[in-house]
DNA sequence: AACGGTACTGGAATCGTTTCCAGTCACAAC
DNA sequence: GTTGTGACTGGAAACGATTCCAGTACCGTT
């Protein structure tokens, strides 16, 4: 009886390499992993054989024995939005350079999120978890503790418990409000963005609004604050609501550029001009902000990812001098959507 | 001598569970992995103990024995751009549901890309590779073959060799051109986008331009075609070049919405109106397109990711009826940036 | 020539699973 | 009371690496 199945080519094992190089298993392992106590000649022999057959060690076997996984889980609530993508790019680039693999977990809605923390799909698969852009709740923290020996850090979101890299939201908001107030605006609206799938947190960007108004002795008008989900269309709808108040605002402070983009459409569709009739400012410096001449508070998302990953490496390597709380600066970028209010 | 180190809590092993449940190793394994031939009572006992101690099997050990990794590598040239992020979301959601882990590899520039294909960091770590949004060259294909038994598929980019999910670029381009031609435009410019880090491929979106003009009996003017990198600022610069030709185009066909956004800024900054002086159309239906009232050809990026992942699952499960070439439809979305040319 | 030391080397034991194989047990059939 | 059957079970042998331990060979000393 002929066997019909062609012999499936098999990945080589360390034993194969050792045999072909005419050395023992231990020696082959040491030669390949760069340990001392291998004579140069032997090492070369092993490396040559390995290279010739394009051999690489089986990471799973290696990790089973060694204990550490060489992987990091990155958990993010959005992937298609600039801020998250940029952070992810930053994280990935430094981890890849250090030979870590990135396991991606998207927790878009509440259901995803609950399931992630309940089932912990990354359990026993990673050395660390980087949480991108959302606060981890108390119950979720306890759940994460089941992942023994796993470091947790946060990127792009303030966090009291875990090491983190973020911007100072309060400061960014004050920069924005300061700019508007400095131009002479007094009737300033805020489009407050929240994540509807997440527990309501008092955000620094919102606090900045109230603090700034208060510092300027301006009495806040509740009708000028509308709350909506992040996103352009949401911003547009929120702006429509703002345009329905009896006395229009002369300026709008939006929690993010994308929200501001939407608001800009509504303003212009209503026949009003920017900045002559209404000024508007965002936060982010999204790549499209410059295309729309939007004045904004710039934050470097990629950098936050890079710094977070570097922080993580420092922690994993037990480097004593690793900072565990890094704040990335933000800058006011003045373009053409803000100007002094018209003299009334 | 007291030992100073606190006993580090250890992950439980299957042996621990088996002992605590009072069963043998094999039985515990069978009970946990849902195999038959375990009495209901025994199974319950094991599962209860496992749940009580929050035990999960070590994936690395399990995979070492079983052979399959349960992981898929996703390779993408950009993460912070909408199209790639959306595809990634789609891929991740279906893979996660099927208990696959996603290993993310970002190959931003040529150097990253070369290094990825030379060093194959995903080697022996995944069951499949999904290439997102770029064509794989011949040499790279050969390199991928070193990953024995690994399925390769492509998402969001046409591909002759691997199973793939994509839109029909030629058709999308013709839809765009058809719209402009139908409005009566004859002097149509094209902003052709390419990836400077990648080998020049004749793109369907470009071919559509020439074919459409030819079909309409319009003689193409080489001065009306400019080539640039993808991106808003690049689109803006390209448009500036187009505005410098002696006889202005009455319409612009941009290879993508982001490029169109940039072009729109340039047009308006030059004091021209859209669509009265110049019409413009893009491709993508980027979330911001509606905010800018941009007429465009809509493609569903997330869907492409979903379909690609489903295709991959079908292939991995050896389902006979798995399609290996899926084309996702595109639709013309008319907004306010296109209109008939002014009567001259 | 015996000895100690250095510099390598080979192989066994191990990591935590899965899977296979040889039982064990209860029960029905003869 | 055997015997056969089927349902379950326990434990050994993998999987492919790393690491430890016990050698071996060779060198320079005495």
Explain what the structure shows:
The structure is a homodimer of 344-residue chains. Helix content of chain A is 40%, strand content 17%. Chain A has 344 residues and is α/β, with parallel strands linked by helices. In chain A, the strands form 2 sheets. Chain A has a 6-stranded parallel beta sheet, with helices on both faces. The radius of gyration of chain A is 27 Å and the shape is elongated. The interface between A and B is large, with 62 and 62 residues. Chain A binds a DNA duplex (30 and 30 nucleotides) through helix 1, helix 2 and helix 4.
Shape of chain A: elongated
Counting DSSP H or I runs of 4 or more residues, the number of helices of chain A is 12
Biggest interface: A-B, 62 and 62 residues
The first-to-last residue Cα distance of chain A is 98 Å
Give me the count of strands of chain A: 12
Strand content of chain A: 15-25%
What is the string of SSEs of chain A from the N terminus onward?
Answer: HHHHEHEHEHEEHEHEHEHEEHEE
In brief, what are we looking at here?
Two copies of one chain form a homodimer. Chain A is an alpha/beta fold. Chain A is 40% helix and 17% strand.
